[in-house]
TrEMBL record:
This is TatD DNase family protein. The keyword Cell division does not apply. InterPro entries: DNase_TatD-rel_CS, Metal_Hydrolase, TatD-like, TatD/YcfH-like. Gene3D superfamilies: Metal-dependent hydrolases (3.20.20.140). A divalent metal cation 1 binds at residues 6, 8, 91, 202.
């Protein structure tokens, strides 16, 4: 069995075909998926998905790409996370690729999320793009190691992966790992301890080869597992089992 540790089933491309998407998961032995929140306005939809399906879970958080909204504070986030199917805080982090200029608000928002995770004892889902040094610095300054979490859709170097692992974080690989030119990510996947690996689709984005460019969906997470198995020269069954175990232990799902 496979688990998709990061998807956006509330986004229209997927939400409008939910029955088909869930059927495809079942057919491909993708047993569980974590629906990740990107802003508080849509959070009730994410939570509703988790409430109405045993095999779906939710997170709560505000993505760094969403500008000009009322900033969530730590107690508010921790309060929203106080729900049996809400298993993480995020996605949160820094994105210096999509947005430019004075991004102090992004860093402050990230700090609030780390504090919330510590307050409610739920792990973090961290998004970092073109901002690895600041991301690691703020994680260290706010004591993110005491709660841990996952660096989602990982595209950074082995050095960055090692520092995140030292702070008690998992590394999650998306469909990018199946792209021919993704040499850095493939290198990380070869070196990382197996007990630190997660897999995700980040659907509807980033469909893996052979669906690159199409709408992604949780059923496609198996292609990411296949690529990791190939890179490490181990069986697909082994990668499926370890990534599933890692998911359940990180998100404390019984
Ligand atoms: Zn992300
Ligand atoms: Zn995402």
């Amino acid at each position: 069995m496979f688990v998709d540790s990061h998807c956006h089933l509330d986004f229209p491309d997927l939400a409008n075909n939910l029955d088909e998407i869930l059927g495809n998961m079942q057919q491909n032995n993708v047993t569980h998926a974590l629906c990740v929140s990107v802003n508080l306005e849509n959070f009730p939809r994410v939570r509703a998905l988790a409430e109405s399906h045993d095999n779906l879970f939710a997170s709560v958080g505000v993505h760094p790409d969403y500008e000009n909204l009322i900033e969530p504070d730590a107690p508010q986030l921790a309060n929203l996370a106080n729900h049996p199917k809400v298993v993480a805080i995020g996605e949160t982090g820094l994105d210096y690729f999509r947005l430019k200029g004075d991004l102090e608000w992004q860093r402050e928002r990230f700090r609030q999320h780390i504090q919330a995770a510590k307050q409610c004892s739920k792990p973090l889902i961290i998004h970092t793009r073109a901002a690895a040094a600041d991301t690691l610095r703020i994680m260290a300054e706010e004591g993110a190691d005491s709660i841990g979490g996952v660096m989602h859709c990982f595209t950074e170097s082995w050095e960055v992966a090692q520092q995140a692992i030292e702070m008690n974080f998992y590394i999650s690989f998306s469909g990018i790992i199946t792209f021919k030119n993704a040499t850095l990510v493939k290198d990380v996947a070869r070196k990382i301890p197996l007990d630190r690996i997660l897999i995700e689709t980040d659907s509807p984005y980033l469909a893996p080869v052979p669906y690159r460019g199409k709408t992604n969906q949780p059923a496609f997470v198996r292609y990411i597992a296949e690529e990791i198995a190939k890179l490490r020269e181990v069986s697909l069954t082994e990668i499926a089992a370890i990534t599933t175990n890692n998911f359940f232990s990180l998100f404390k799902i019984a």
